[in-house]
Amino acid sequence: MRKIYIGFVLLLTIALSANAQQAILDKEPANNAAELNANAAATAQLGEAGIVNMLTMLQPTGQADNTKIFDAISGFSFYTTQPGKEAWRSMAVRAYSKALAKVTDKENQAFIISQLQIAGKDDAVATLKKYLDNERRCDPSARALVKINTFASKAALLAALKGSKGNCTITLVEAIGDSRNPLAVKSVSALIGKDKKLDKVALYAVANIANPISINLLANAAEKSGFTYDETNATYAYLLFIRNLGKKNVVTATKLAKTLATKAGLANQEQTHTAALKILVDMQGAKSTPTLLEAARYNNQKYRDAALKFAGPYINPTTTALWVKEMTSARSEEKAAIIRMLGDRRAASALPAILKELKEGDTEVKVAAITASGKIGQDKVLPDLLETMSTGNPAEITAGQNALMVMKGSTVTAKVAD
After folding, report:
1. Phi/psi of residue 64, each to 5°?
2. 106 vs 112: CA distance, rounded Å
């Protein structure tokens, strides 16, 4: 009799759980945050066994629509990451881990693994590392481990690398780079030179880890590529390495950026030359003006333009004085570019020098000075602009008209009419 009673209770429990599951699925997808939270709370009430059971209801890909189950579980996973829901998060990890052992469809397994990426911490590592040996499951498992980002998750990725093959190797190397595991540098570096596709992710990985022991490896790879962007992306990797290294050792990173900029310039690789300059400026910050002044004298217009663009955020009265000094001795094309930059940054202390160019500069410089002085001085420079327009050529008159159209000040219309 006791056995019959126990059996009845179990059947009743299963039936109630099935009804509860169906009630949740009937409310998916949620229409708003309140419904999402209510469904997540209802899913939590299913308990570990109920969640496992719901996941085992997933049908093989292509045989049925699993959307409602996906929605319910995804909503629950997100909900478990909220403050005060640690018990639910832990339960979710246990349930998902158990469900993975029961579900055989690889796409459904990938979905469950993606939920461990949301809810998992160190408690999910033991489960995830079991799925790093299959191409379909390796990628979501590796991404989940990167998200967890603990000593245990990093160790799991590195351990899996040793016996990996094909696309799994590429996935693991990239994940190791994303997790910035300093203990992986030698293992990853040893893979370089065997396959171009693998080289690309391996160079990225050591660049993202940014251990100084990788300097020669990355510098040589970039130089071998001619500082171009080839299939190994070695130049990009070296730039990334320098930027990341700058967060740890700015002195060494600055030296590397300067050397790379020089070599890329000599190789006429404008894109790399400019990228190295940008990294250098970002590291030097407000102290970058001398670097930018030198770059503004370079014999490549696009590089000069880039230097002026990078200079913009650091314009202040002190740096403006340096740019004005540079402007007075620059050639017309360079002078006009500096004036445009100072105008765009509304560098008030540059206005006297810019107004002087209205009388002394050639057409290109005058046009730049007209526009810049209008932006900086507004209606205060109206007499200067009108005088320049009265004797100017068509290009200068047009520039003056354009400046007047955007000029602020209550006296503009009256003065122009006079």
Report:
1. -160, 170
2. 10
Residue with tokens 């420079």: 381
* Residue 411 burial (CB count, 10 A): 11
Beta bridge partners of 64: 61
**Amino acid in position 390:** S
Phi, psi values for residue 61, rounded to 5°: -55, 130
**Nearest partner of 211 among 232, 234, 184, 190, judged by Cα:** 184
Q: Are 365 and 388 in contact (CB under 8 A)?
A: no
For residue 1, pLDDT beyond 70: no
Task: State whether residue 214 is helix, strand or coil.
Answer: helix
Rounded to whole angstroms, the Cα distance separating 148 from 159 reads 16
- Helix 135-148 / helix 151-162 crossing angle, nearest 10 deg: 150
How far, in Å, CA of 327 to CA of 157, rounded? 55
Cβ(323)–Cβ(350) below 8 Å: yes
Angle ∠(30,40,16) on CA atoms, nearest 5: 105
Could you say which DSSP state residue 81 is in? T
Instruction: Compute the distance between CA of residue 292 and CA of residue 294 in angstroms, rounded to an integer.
Output: 5
Mean pLDDT, the chain, rounded, equals 91
Closest CA to 239 of 280, 211, 267: 280
Give the whole-angstrom CA distance, residue 400 versus residue 392.
9
H or E element at residue 346: none
Residue 408 has pLDDT above 80, yes or no: no
CA-CA distance, 155 to 149, in Å (whole number)? 10
Strand partners, 61: 64
| Tokens standing for residue 196 | 């171009």
**Do 173 and 191 touch, CB atoms closer than 8 A?**
yes
Which pLDDT does position 154 carry in this prediction?
A: 98
Tell me if the bond preceding 212 is cis, omega within 30° of 0. no
**Hey, is 221 helix, strand or coil?**
helix
Percent of the chain that is helix, strand, coil (3-state, to 5) = 80, 0, 20
Start-to-end CA span in the chain (Å):
111
Q: Which pLDDT does position 17 carry in this prediction?
A: 54
**Which among 153, 236, 245 has a CA at the least distance from the CA of 199?**
236
